[in-house]
Predict the structure.
Amino acid sequence: MFRRSRTSLLLATLAFAAAGLTACGGSDPLASDGGGDSGSITIGSANFPESELLMQMYAQALEAKGVKVTTKPNIGAREVYMKAFEDGSIDLLPEYNGALLSYLKPSGVPKSVTSPEAVYKELQGVLPDGSETLPQSAAEDKDTLTVTKATADKYDLTSIADLKPVADELTVGAGPEWKKRYQGLVGLKDLYGVTFKEFKPLDSGGPLTIAALKKGDIDVANVFSTDSNISENGWVTLTDPKNLYLAENVVPLIRTDAVTGDVKEALDGVSKALTTQNLTEALAKVQLDKQDPVTVAKDFLSEHDLL
């Protein structure tokens, strides 16, 4: 009888303590804090360094305006992060106008739509419900097909069109999603008649693709035009005479219900400050100098009086 009483007392004490912790909000890390969330913005990024750097620029510029921000870096390819955007898990993304247009219009983009202004205008008709793009930046980062100088010399390559007679001898590397994208293998075959010997799924212009091209594991790489590895290694970016890759200016894609005066002012400030040259230089600090994107973004914003 005595033992049962002590056990009952112990259980009651533990239950009371647990209840106290719950009341203090310490037992469930996912529980809402009960306020402030309605004014916050969740910013995501794709799975490559420049996207994360731009996410940090957006986040810090917004925080400087007093906006509460949550960041979700390295979500994945466009096929992944756009689902999160459309279901409301993400409010804001740094995007690229032409690449986003091609994704949202898989039936094809009119051949006349290539300039930044024309791409931006066409994009407005296919944006997900409840979303908008703020004014785009002059900064552009295009998808490219890039080869080493040795490969360019061996096969006399200067443009994507030059690949057609030799592609069956070459291996191309890119992100896994590139296999089904029009701005990947699908469009290369359709526009240029290019079919490679092999496709190696690596990452979206990231370290795996860069390393594979350096080592000779692939002959052709999908590399982004602002990537400092191109100039650092003396690589050759093939021209695109048929405009497979449209203008790809940096543009904020945001849910309309997240737009306020402060939000627009902060993001417009970042877009106005960005140029292709200074974005390339900032990205080099991340990729080549191995600096933290948070620090690089802060330095950039400070330089342009955006903090």
In short: Residues 2-23 form the longest helix (22 residues). The chain has two domains: 41-140+247-303, 143-237. Residues 1-38 have pLDDT under 50 and may be disordered. DSSP finds twelve helices and ten strands in the chain.
